[in-house]
Amino acid sequence: MVRYLKRLYFEVNSVRYIMTLFWSILLMLMLTYVVSSMMGVAFNLTTALTLGIIATIAIFIFPAVLPEPTETDGAH
User: Fold this and answer.
1) Which member of 6, 18, 33, 55 has the greatest number of CB atoms within 10 A?
2) Span 12-27, pLDDT tens digits
3) CA distances from 8 to 1, 21, 22, 43, 60 (A)
4) What is the distance between the alpha carbons of residues 50 and 56, in angstroms, rounded to a whole number?
5) Cβ-contact 24, 9 below 8 angstroms
6) What is the enclosing helix (H) or strand (E) of 16?
C-alpha cells in the first residue's frame, strides 16, 4: 500500500509539472500572437516558447521564495 501511495504521489506531481508547462506555453503562444499582430510584426515561435518556459520556471520558483504565512488568532 505504501509503495502504491508513493507511486501515486510521484505521478500526481509529474502531471502537475507537465500541465503547468503545457498551459504556460499555450498562454504565451496566444499572448505573443496577439501582441505581434497588434504591433504589425511577424509571429516568432521561438520567442513564445522561450517565454513560456521562463514563465513555468517562475511559477515554480515564486512559491518557494515567498515566506510562509503566519497564523493570526484574531478574527477578521
Assistant:
1) 55
2) 778 888 999 999 999 9
3) 11, 20, 21, 40, 21
4) 10
5) no
6) helix 2-39
- Going from N- to C-terminal start, the domains of the chain cover 2-64
Quote the CA–CA distance of 60 and 71 in Å, as a whole number.
Answer: 24
Q: Which residue bears the cell 496566444?
A: 30
C-alpha of 67 from chain center: 19
User: Which residue from 52, 46, 54, 58 is spatially nearest to 23, judged by alpha carbons?
Assistant: 52
Q: Which of 15, 61, 54, 51 is nearest to 30 (CA)?
A: 51
Amino acid present at 69: P
Segment holding 72, helix H or strand E = none
What distance in Å separates the CA atoms of residue 33 and residue 46, rounded to the nearest whole number? Answer: 12
